[in-house]
Amino acid sequence: MKPLKIVIGADTFSPNVNGSARFSERLATGLAARGHEVHVVAPAATRKHGTWTETYDGQDITVHRLRSYRWYPHDWLRWAEPWFINKNSDRILEQVDPDVVHFQSHIIVGRGLSIAARKRGGVRIIGTNHFMPENLLEFTLLPKSWQVKAVGMAWRAAKRTFGRADVVTTPTQSAADFLEKYTGLSGVLAISCGIDAENYTPDFTPRADNRILFVGRVTGEKQIDVLIKAIALLPLDLDVKLDIVGGGDLLKNLEHQSKALGIGDRVHFTGYVSEEELRAAYTKATIFGMPSIAELQSIATMEAMASGLPVVAADAMALPHLVKDGRNGFLFEPGNAQQLADKIEFLLRLPQEELDEFKRNSLAFIQAHDLQRTIVTFERLYRGASDVDPAAIDAIMAANALPNGALESDATDAAHS
Question: Which of 96, 184, 273, 370 is most exposed, with the fewest beta carbons within 10 Å of its own?
Answer without folding.
Answer: 184
